[in-house]
Write a structure and sequence with these properties.
Protein name: dTDP-glucose 4,6-dehydratase
Family: Belongs to the NAD(P)-dependent epimerase/dehydratase family. dTDP-glucose dehydratase subfamily.
CATH superfamily of one domain: NAD(P)-binding Rossmann-like Domain
Distance between the termini: 53 Å
Strand content: 15-25%
Largest sheet: 7 strands, parallel
CATH class of one domain: Alpha Beta
Number of strands: 14
Structural class: alpha/beta
Pfam families: GDP_Man_Dehyd
Strand order of the largest sheet: 3-2-1-4-7-8-12
InterPro entries: dTDP_Gluc_deHydtase, NAD(P)-bd_dom, NAD(P)-bd_dom_sf
Shape: globular
Cofactor: NAD(+)
Bound molecules: nicotinamide-adenine-dinucleotide
Length: 351
């Protein structure tokens, strides 16, 4: 039995990851630690709580005492750290929580994991071998900064983050790396491009546009809409994390992407077309400060060294995703209310 501590498992990617692992490995145990911020939603894990191999603990990754208690109660083999404040717009308004959760929270997890990380002698004649908690940090391509019209992000590029969100993720990556270099902890860092798919909080581009389109509300597009992102279906991201968790070489960073560069406006128009609405719904709004122009991921390292390949084409993934949101309007309605709506109105329509 392997026990994985998943943090942020009530969010978009973490919940998809938990479901994938529990289905794929009936002998694995998952402990999901999530503080349930506005983005954490246990509805994403409906039915999973019936699985005997799944435990949910409401806790903040910054709470050292609680994290320590969790490590002392379970024999944890690996940590997959999804927990984060993840929305760039919010980081521009309120950077502090991005630093405390994304940086300090990661450092608390590493520190506690280090205490439970054992070094056992293999036998009395051989060198020591390491066994214990593997730490996988789920990071983002945004840590590299922005690209011009050409070029791609590769793992050994310098990090040049441009938003408080990406700066906090880059800082966390460096702390994770330092625990490997300084203490020899077994770590991996994955840096993925933009995800889409079921259960994504409707403040992010694709679910926001689908939801607004369905209600025939304005579709707010930043600047000229020509910002390019490299899109990957969430289940392909999860399978890549799983590959790195099991086969990643200690201390290595792996980019994850599916070679799907699209301009934001292209995506918005595709959604309009799929839902049979009018392009008159598009409303260009003032661009986000420091908005990165283009991201593109070079995924050669993970494909050639670990044999991972994405399964979804963008067309198929988008069709399924739009259909998912059409079939799950209640899920969206439960979210798009109260505080979220106030925040949303402030963000896009008081400009
Ligand atoms: P999300 O915002 O949907 O989920 C984040 C989860 O973390 C939520 O459930 C929230 O409750 C939890 N959380 C936040 N602060 C916490 C804290 N202090 N303690 C415990 N739990 C806390 O985010 P997501 O889109 O699922 O992203 C997950 C991870 O993947 C993040 O680290 C993000 O940086 C990274 N990532 C996301 C994308 C993307 O396109 N969404 C791409 C690459 C990398």
């Amino acid at each position: 039995m392997k026990t994985i501590l998943v943090t942020g498992g009530a969010g978009f990617i973490g919940s998809n990851f938990i479901k994938m692992i529990l289905t794929k490995y009936p002998n694995y145990k998952i402990i999901n630690v999530d503080s349930l911020t506005y983005a954490g939603n246990l509805e994403n894990l409906k039915n999973v709580d019936k699985n005997d191999n799944y435990i949910f603990i409401k806790a903040d990754i910054r709470d050292r005492k609680k994290i320590d208690e969790i490590f002392s109660s379970y024999d944890i083999n690996s940590v997959v750290n999804f927990a984060a404040e993840s929305h760039v717009d919010r980081s521009i308004e309120e950077p502090e929580i991005f630093l405390t959760t994304n940086v300090i929270g990661t450092q608390v997890l590493l520190d506690v994991a280090k205490e439970y990380w054992k070094v056992k002698p293999k036998d009395k004649y051989s060198k020591k071998y390491k066994e214990g908690v593997k730490f996988l940090q789920v990071s983002t391509d945004e840590v590299y900064g922005a690209l011009g019209k050409t070029g791609m992000f590769v793992e050994n590029m310098p990090l040049k983050p441009n938003s408080p969100y990406s700066a906090s993720k880059a800082s966390a990556d460096m702390i994770v790396r330092s625990y490997h270099k300084t203490y020899g902890m077994p770590i991996n860092i994955t840096r993925c491009s933009n995800n889409y798919g079921p259960y994504q909080f409707p403040e992010k581009l694709i679910p926001l546009m689908i939801n607004n389109c369905l209600k025939e509300k304005y579709l707010p597009v930043y600047g000229d809409g020509m910002q390019i992102r490299d899109w990957l279906h969430v289940s392909d991201h999860c399978s890549a994390i799983n590959t790195v968790l099991h086969n990643g070489k200690e201390g290595e960073v792996y980019n994850i992407g599916g070679n799907n560069e699209k301009a934001n406006i292209e995506i918005v128009k595709l959604i309009i077309q799929e839902l049979g609405k009018s392009e008159d719904l598009i409303k260009y709004v003032k661009d986000r400060p420091g908005h990165d122009r283009r991201y593109a991921i070079d995924n050669k390292k993970i494909t050639s060294e670990l044999g991972w390949e994405p399964e979804y084409t963008f067309d198929q993934g988008m069709k399924e995703t739009i259909q998912w949101y059409l079939n799950n309007t209640e899920w969206i309605e439960n979210i798009v209310s109260g505080d979220y709506m106030n925040y949303y109105e402030d963000m896009y329509f008081n400009i």
